Amino acid sequence: MTSLVWFRDDLRVHDHPALYAASLHPEPLQAIYFVTPEQWKKQDLAPVRADLIARQLNQLGEALAALGIPFSVLTVADYQQIPARLASYCQQHEVSQLFVNRDIGIYELARDLSVQQQCDATGIRVQWFDARCVFAPGSVLTGSKEMFKVFTPFSKAWLKKLAAEGYQVWPKPSARGGILSWSSVSIDYPRVDSSDWPVGEAAVLQQLQDFCAEKLRQYDEQRDFPACPGTSRISPYLTLGIISVRQCLAAIEAALGQLPFERGAPGFVWLNELIWREFYQHLLVAFPHVSKHKAFKPETDHIRWLWDDARFTAWCEGKTGYPIVDAAMRCLNQTGWMHNRLRMIVASFLTKDLHIDWRLGERYFMQHLIDGELAANNGGWQWAASTGADAAPYFRIFNPTTQGQRFDEQGQFIKQWLPELELVPAKYIHTPHDWLKVFDPQDSYPAPIVDHSESRTIALALFQR
Fold it and tell me: Which residue numbers delimit the Photolyase/cryptochrome alpha/beta domain (predicted)?
């Protein structure tokens, strides 16, 4: 009889509880992954992320082959077809045990329930493991055993649990027999080149370790400046499970000699960002309505968002007349990536300056981001729109001009993505229109599509109403 490991968003061999547990059994071991093009379309998987998945699948196939573990990449249309296809595969290969790391999305939970029922009916034992978070969703709770609705107390409880229980990084499984051959696979889904992002666990772990060794201590001072390479850029890899959050903790500890548990300690700010990621994962499980296009705060579903197709298009294309917003959106469109500070700025602009429903921005991000992931993306957008957990008060509205002046003072990032503003002096780069009228009247850069002061007043009225 055969044991089977089912890979999903955990495309690695290190710190993989399901794979490691399966490797301890003496029977033959195989692995499987399902490509689901129609499901990906339904969930707005970005083509650049699809390309990253394809490249990592081949890296994973080679890593498993080196361990003597056959790896099958199968294509079905969507999640609904997986139970029957998996049952057929298990029958063909005489699978007696299935090892899986748990998932959290509503579509994924429905899929997994169907698979469990199918396996129960055919006598296959399924073993589920928690690998997505340091602590499984539902295990960090208030004193009354409820999920936290605000980040700060969640963070404190999470850190207390970490200090008391620690964490475990599961070892890579031992090789099972000889090295197998691996033939590269392709996937039938629109793809955009992701080659600027290395794949393979060794390369990604090296990137993580380099960040912790060279930039972790300065992260707090550098993280908000998009022209400065001060962030880790590992979110795409966490999203696909090429590395785990536990490996991030290990890298912090290796670089600092200990984990930073106190605010102000070196490395704490980056650790806190990882806790934000955990918070949104836990939140999605505890309050699944947020993954059904519903606001976390039900009363905010009554906000009468406005609609202007021309303004939404201008936002998408980076033609709003606000340089920091436009540079951020053009960077996203061309690379599939956006700096976190910029994500907050453009989300605030869409919802508080253009008064357009946050759900449209959330979907646009998912359609373009290489690190698009439901929990973090939804959590970030609802935070910016003041509809979510731990949301900024509705009257806290980012001024796109002052945000640009503060975090891209000389316009280095702006000029990288807005070549039409290349000649504008730094003094005028955040409000270039008067300068352009005098010195470059033929320039194509658009005038601001809204007045921020007026838009702010309208946004306050929308929320107050």
Answer: 1-134
- Asked about 276 being catalytic, the answer comes back as yes
172-231 per-position pLDDT tens digit: 999 988 899 999 999 999 999 999 999 999 999 999 999 999 999 999 999 999 999 999
Examine the residue annotation and report whether 340 is marked as an active-site residue of this protein: yes
Identified catalytic residue from 170, 197, 358, 383: 358
Residue 392, pLDDT > 80, answer: no
Q: Is 219 annotated as a binding residue?
A: yes
Is 273 assigned a catalytic role? yes
Is 234 marked as binding a ligand? Answer: yes
Q: Average per-residue pLDDT in the chain? A: 96
Whether this prediction's pTM lies above 0.90 is answered by yes
- Considering just the CA atoms, what is the radius of gyration of the chain in Å? 23
Distance CA 20, CA 25 (A): 9
The rounded distance, in Å, linking the Cα atoms of 345 and 269 is: 20
User: Domains plus CATH for the chain?
Assistant: 2-129 (3.40.50.620), 133-168+201-286 (1.25.40.80), 298-464 (1.10.579.10)
Q: What is the pLDDT of residues 321-337, one digit of tens each?
A: 999 999 999 999 999 99
Query: Are 212 and 255 contacting, i.e. CB atoms less than 8 angstroms apart?
Result: yes
Active-site hit among 128, 272, 340, 435:
340
231 is in an annotated binding site: yes
Give yes or no for residue 33 having a pLDDT over 70: yes
Burial class (CB in 10 A: 0-12, 13-18, 19+), 295: buried
Our answer to whether residue 381 is catalytic in this structure is yes
Tokens of 41: 């379309």
